[in-house]
Automatic annotation (TrEMBL):
Keyword annotations from UniProtKB, A to Z: ATP-binding, Cell membrane, Kinase, Membrane, Nucleotide-binding, Phosphoprotein, Transferase, Transmembrane, Transmembrane helix, Two-component regulatory system
Protein name as annotated: histidine kinase
Top-level class of the enzyme under EC nomenclature: transferase
Span of domain Histidine kinase: 130-343
GO terms of biological process kind: cellular response to phosphate starvation
Coarse class of the protein's main subcellular location: membrane
Provenance organism: Fontibacillus panacisegetis
InterPro entries, per the entry: BphY/WalK/GraS-like (IPR050351), HATPase_C_sf (IPR036890), HATPase_dom (IPR003594), His_kinase_dom (IPR005467), HisK_dim/P_dom (IPR003661), HisK_dim/P_sf (IPR036097), Sig_transdc_His_kin-like_C (IPR004358)
Presence of the UniProt keyword ATP-binding in the record: yes
Membrane-traversing stretches: 12-34, 40-61
Chain segments annotated as coiled-coil in the UniProt record: none
Catalyzed reaction equations: ATP + protein L-histidine = ADP + protein N-phospho-L-histidine
EC number: 2.7.13.3
Molecular functions per Gene Ontology: ATP binding; phosphoprotein phosphatase activity; phosphorelay sensor kinase activity
Amino acid sequence: MKKNTELSLKSIYILYAGVFFFVVVGYTGALWYFTAFDSVVIWISLGLAATLLILGGALLWTMRVKMRGMIGKVDDIVERAINKQERITGYEETSISALEDKVHRYVDMSMTHEKNIEAEKSKIKALISDISHQTKTPLSNIILYSQLLGEVAGLDKESSQYVDRIKLQSEKLDWLIESLVKMSRLETGIISIQTASLPVVGAITQAISQIYSAAERKGIEVRISCDANVKARHDAKWTSEALFNMLENAVKYSESGGRINITAHSSEMFTRIDITDTGMGIEEKELNLIFRRFFRSKRVAEYEGVGIGLFLAREIVTAQGGYIKVTSKVGEGSVFSVFLPVL
């Protein structure tokens, strides 16, 4: 920064010096012309021009030296303020001292603000962890007991239905709490996504394995076309989570006997993963809304869900330096394209 500032100032000095030189030379030449090149006038004007050029050069040089010293001092002030070192000017009543005082106060405020943010993150992290723990254990017990109840011999049909409903609703609540915890951790920056240049086929197959049973029950064909050498800089675990959320929607909103195709290929800057389905499609006016937290279209009101899957998917992909695009036609299906950086 200091070097760039000095180069900029040097260009300004050269510009002003050039303008001053041409003004003096032009004025001298005009004077000679209008005095018919009188020898006395020529010598006087030459002396005056030389004096002006020397004085102007000295002034510019002095300004340059002072400005360089000022830039160096300001640079030292900022550096010392950041590193919490002793002040240069002490507490003198000068403009540079006032600047130093402001810089120190600004750095102190910034550091205090940063510490407060970190403290808040720690509190939120502890709160989320506590909520997750306090709800996870009771829910796990409810699910376990409902499974045990379902295995009890002699239950009548109505009782069995009640047990199945308890188990199903408990699993839904468990999934919802887990999703909300993930969402909160992503938004507060608590989750650290570790990216590396890896083949994307691992994340894709992991995501498919989580929805394959549901797709099979509906007779939905799932195909994958991805070369093992197709790589992207990503966190395989979290990329799999994002892809799963999109694939889950593809299965949920596709009719029985539908198809889901997953393809991946790399370009110079990004690796593109396309998830194409033959589902109900998305209205054009809703394409910019589907990634909002808790957004659900009126057309899918009868389907289960709370509207955080796509929000989580976008947050995960964005945190890795990528983005998601969607194209869709109502009644024909949708294409979710995930772009992940190659480098």
